[in-house]
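Severity: low
Component: inverse-folding endpoint
Summary: output formatting inconsistent between runs
Steps to reproduce: submit the following structure tokens with default settings.
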């Protein structure tokens, strides 16, 4: 039995549950597995393909739900904004779509801002937990990459991540670092250096395989080497084309999605594979709608024997 205090898992009990990979089993609305399924994991979709504004969330949830994805990832500020409208739960419920995670951009390099940043992500995490989610995707702050000294900032990044990870577990949410282009943790080498140093009892890993490919790194070795602490992932493809910031629907780019999926299937953690593709800038018409890109990704994941809700 997991230790609880005032209805919330304490840090030790929650860390034990996460280590055993059972935290997600208590999520409300999470789909039951059919015994005959060959694939262990389920596939969700993030909301940012539709845009970053709270006003984009309604359409995103309706499209993702109607396509039969198993979960949704929002953003921390979107959850917060929707609280003023009665909460995002009403829209998720109408679509029959559970919240799995929210992307939470935070400052990891400024030690003077650490306490405020921890407080901010905990505030978002309480909303993630309120709506049945498990994962706070920790998005690193942007930096000017030219002249950026990662080694000089590594200790601050690790210290902030450790503080965040422990604080998040106190509210029943897992913090997972998401390397991102043009931020303080961009490349596979930087992600590796951080994940080798953080306290992995509290800080988990969320590789964005498309972002890593765009940064010039092969995501496969990184995912394989840290598979034991991957608790969430953004599955997207990259071909360097003119649209979608160089990303492309799954199966049309250079990311080795089948190998990465196979690694995740074997890591024993009850994570969700979260399909994602960045949107075009609003001043540049996209060659296809977000729903169309999500439909292509669905068809591709089905070709890998993943199932979707009918």
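Observed output (run 2 of 3):
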């Amino acid at each position: 039995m997991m230790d609880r205090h005032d209805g919330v898992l304490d840090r030790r009990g929650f860390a034990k549950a996460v280590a055993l990979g059972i935290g997600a089993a208590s999520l409300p609305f999470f789909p039951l597995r059919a015994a005959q399924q060959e694939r262990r994991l389920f596939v969700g979709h993030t909301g940012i393909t539709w845009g970053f504004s709270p006003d984009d969330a309604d359409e995103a949830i309706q499209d993702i739900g109607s396509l039969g994805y198993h979960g949704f990832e929002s953003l921390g500020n979107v959850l917060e904004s929707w609280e003023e409208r009665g909460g995002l739960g009403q829209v998720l419920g109408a679509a029959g779509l559970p919240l799995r995670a929210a992307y939470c951009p935070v400052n990891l390099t400024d030690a003077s801002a650490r306490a405020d940043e921890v407080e901010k992500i905990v505030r978002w995490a309480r909303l993630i937990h309120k709506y049945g989610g498990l994962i706070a995707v920790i998005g690193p702050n942007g930096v000017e990459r030219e002249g950026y000294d990662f080694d000089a900032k590594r200790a601050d990044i690790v210290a902030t991540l450790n503080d965040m990870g422990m604080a998040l577990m106190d509210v029943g949410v897992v913090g997972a670092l998401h390397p991102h282009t043009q931020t303080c943790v961009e490349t596979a080498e930087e992600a590796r250096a951080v994940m080798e140093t953080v306290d992995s009892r509290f800080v988990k890993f969320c590789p964005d395989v498309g972002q890593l490919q765009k940064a010039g790194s092969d995501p496969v070795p990184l995912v394989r080497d840290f598979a034991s602490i991957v608790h969430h992932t953004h599955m997207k493809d990259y071909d360097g084309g003119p649209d979608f910031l160089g990303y492309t629907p799954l199966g049309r780019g250079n990311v080795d999605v089948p190998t990465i999926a196979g690694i995740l299937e074997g890591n024993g953690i009850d994570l969700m594979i979260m399909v994602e593709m960045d949107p075009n800038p609003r001043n540049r018409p996209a060659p296809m709608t977000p729903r169309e890109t999500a439909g292509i990704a669905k068809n591709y994941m089905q070709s890998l024997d993943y199932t979707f809700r009918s």
